[in-house]
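Cross-check.
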Amino acid sequence: MNVLFHPFTPKGTVAAPPSKSDVHRAVICAALSGGVCTVSPVAMSEDIKATIGCVEALGASAKLSGDVLTVDGSRIGEQTAAELDCGESGSTLRFLIPVAAALGVNATFVGRGRLPERPLGVYTDVLPKAGVAFESEGGLPLTIGGKLKSGVFRVPGDVSSQFISGLLFALPLLRGDSDIVLTSPVQSVGYINMTVRTMERFGVEVDVTDMGWHVRGQQRYIPSDYRTDGDWSQAAFYMTAGAINGEITVDGVNTDSAQGDRRIAALLREFGAEVIQDASRVTVKKSSLRGITIDVKNIPDLVPALAVCAAFAHGTTRIINAARLRLKESDRLQTTAALINALGGKAHELPDGLEIEGGSIWGGFVKGSNDHRIVMAAAACAAGCDEDILCTDAFSVNKSYPDFYRDYNSVGGKAEIKE
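Predicted model, tokenized:
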């Protein structure tokens, strides 16, 4: 299905959806608690469905009532073998490989889309040294066996933070203490901090060291009722639309969030937008925008929204330290540049980023590339276009934000699903 975005002037207030990153982490901790927990609010995106299905495959049960998810972990890890369907969710896959190994479950991981191609090299390097056997012909399906043992895990910091988070979830379950030692500077540290913060709310402690993290063994996750954050990375598309042409307020985005993507408010202000912020909401108003240079090492998910803002700014914007985006649902550097260029802008790929010459975007045809963030970026572009935007892969937004079109239209957007 395609989606037609008509030009519009953003106006009004929208609630940020629940943070997908936060919900992933809370569901896993709840399942490992061995008791009954609630996680709310929860939006049943395709990625969250994958994580819920996988913890159920490991023995937990989960039931959604409204936006409240009740998780019962009393039977977690009882089975000796399981198949975990991760869908297209890299977080689900990378978080749960060490968890299944710590539980001693012989697990087969499957997935689809680009997920079978996404790298797992960190785990294939470090987990066999800690008692975990791997069977794979490269990518997925992947079968693991054996039980994870405590010890020292040396991992590079310049790969996805999901590998470190997966180890952090698993190591407290082991008998002995463990250390994660970084062999290169860490990137996306905000996501790791989010993992540690969620674990702490379920009673598990992690100590930061000079070289990484120390995790005591024989800890227990404690059942908890968990309130999730609003999603800054999704709110970024609304805020960007407001900066381009209008005024939008986003509720439920907390300034004390562990999400690194909360930096979007400061970056839009640096672009020149008028940004008014309090503890849990941000209002962004149109103003004269100028190009800037942005290091996205710790905020890679913001790149499509930032690129849209750059396309409407005067001067040149450079986005650097974004090479890992080539391994997302699409090669997101290539597809973001293609989006801007297809609509009349000027974007150039760099080996690790983008260079965007600001001016204006007119409209046209865009390939969504089965990437939720590319489709939402096209939606934000419509705030400044004179002509319609026709975008493919309309329902790829279900991966992270199934209510996107409803919420988008509530603040003036004009999204129309087309066959």
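The first helix runs from residue 20 to 32. The chain has twelve helices and 24 strands. Passed to J.P. for a second look.
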